[in-house]
Amino acid sequence: MKNFWTLIVIIFVFGVSVQNVFAVSSDEYYRAGQSFYSRKDYANAFQYFDAALQVDPKNSSALQGRANCYYTQGQYQDALTDYQNVLVKNPTNIQLSSFIEQIKAKIGSSSGAANTNVFSRKTVKNLESIDDSKAFGVRLESGVGLVSLGDFNTDAKNILKQAKDVKPYDPTYQETATVASVYPDMTIEPTIKLFTFLELGLPISVMPIGDYRIAHSSVNQIDEQDYKVSAFGFGLNGRVFVELNNVTKLFLSAGPVFVPMNLNYTDSGSQSSGSSWNYSANSSNMAIGAQCQLGADYHLGGGILISAYLGYRSASASGFPTTFNGTFGGTYYSFPGQFYVVKNPTYGSFINFIGDQYLSNYSPGSYRPLEVDLSSVLSGVELSMVF
Questions:
Q1: What is the pTM assigned to this prediction?
Q2: CB of 240 within 8 A of CB of 198?
Q3: Does the pLDDT at position 340 exceed 60?
Q4: Residue ranges per domain, the chain?
Q5: Cα separation of 225 and 207, whole Å?
Q6: Which label site among 45, 101, 162, 318 has the fewest CB atoms less than 10 Å from its CB?
Q7: Which helix (H) or strand (E) holds 269?
Q8: Which CATH architecture has domain 2-129?
Q9: Cβ atoms of residues 84 and 101 within 8 Å
C-alpha cells in the first residue's frame, strides 16, 4: 500500500511538471490571436485573445485585441466594455478615449451611423497599428559615445608635463597631445519578441573611436605620432519593457558584448642633421565586456517606433603584439614587439613600443602591456520596425 501511494504521488508530481512545461502562456495565446486577426479571421482571433485573458487577466494587449474583435463583428456594447477597461489601464491614451466616445455615440443613436462607422473603422485600424507584439523586428541606432581611453590620456598629460619642463631650456620646443573623446556609434540590432514584456536582440555596432596624436617640434627635430583606434561590437541583448500607455514603453536592456578592436600606429619625423624616419605597426585584440541601456519606445503606428536611449558599454583589452616596420636614415627595420606603458621616475609613465629582443633590458615591474579601454557612455536615438 505504501508503494502504491508513493507511485500515485510520483505520477501526480510528474503530471503537474509536464503540464507546467507544456502550458501555453498568455503572450503565446495573444500572438496567435494577432496572427488570426491580421488574416481577418476574427472568430478564431477572439478565441485566442480570450484564452490569453483567461491565463492573465492583466494582459491589456489581449484585452484590446478582444475589443477589436467585438467591434469588427458589430458587438459594440461588448467592445465598449473592453475598451473602457483598457483605458483604465492606460488613462493617458487620448486616441482610445476619443474612440470610446465615438462608440458611445454609435450605440446611443442610429442616425448618422454610416459616417460614424467609417470614422470608427479607421480608428480601429490606427489602434491596431500601434501594437508591437509581432515576433521579429530591427532596431537602427544612431548615437554618440563618450570614451576615456585611459592609458592614452595619462600619456598625453605626462608628455605635456614634460614639455612644460623642457620649454625654459629650449624656447623652440613645442609639443601637442590630443586624445579622441567623442565618436559616432552606429548599431543595427535584429530582434525577436519572446513575450510582450521581453525582447531578445543581436546588436552589431560600428565604432570609429578616433586618434591619439602627438606632435613635437624643436630646432633639432620634428616628429608626429598617431595611434588610430577603431572597433566594432556584437553581442546579445535582453530588453525588458514597462508599458506607460498604449503608445509609450520604457525599456531596460543589458547583455554581453564582444569588441574586436584595431590599433594602427604611425611615426614619422626628421632631424636637423638630415636623418628621417617613417615607422608603422598594426595590431588587433578582442575585448569582452557588457552593455546596458535605459530608454523609451514611442509607437508611431504601422509597426514603426522611434526611441531615445542612454547607455553604457564596458570593454577593454590589453596587449597588442605586432611587428614594427619602417625606415630610419634609409635603412629598413622590421622586428616583433608590442606597446607597453613604461614607468618613469619623474613623469609617471610613457607609452613605448619595445621590441621582443629588447624587453630583457627592462626590470620586472617597470612596464605593463598597453590597455585600450573603450568603456563609453552612450546616447542617441533609434528607429525600429516590427514585422
A1: 0.71
A2: yes
A3: yes
A4: 2-129, 136-386
A5: 22
A6: 101
A7: strand 248-271
A8: Alpha Horseshoe (1.25)
A9: no
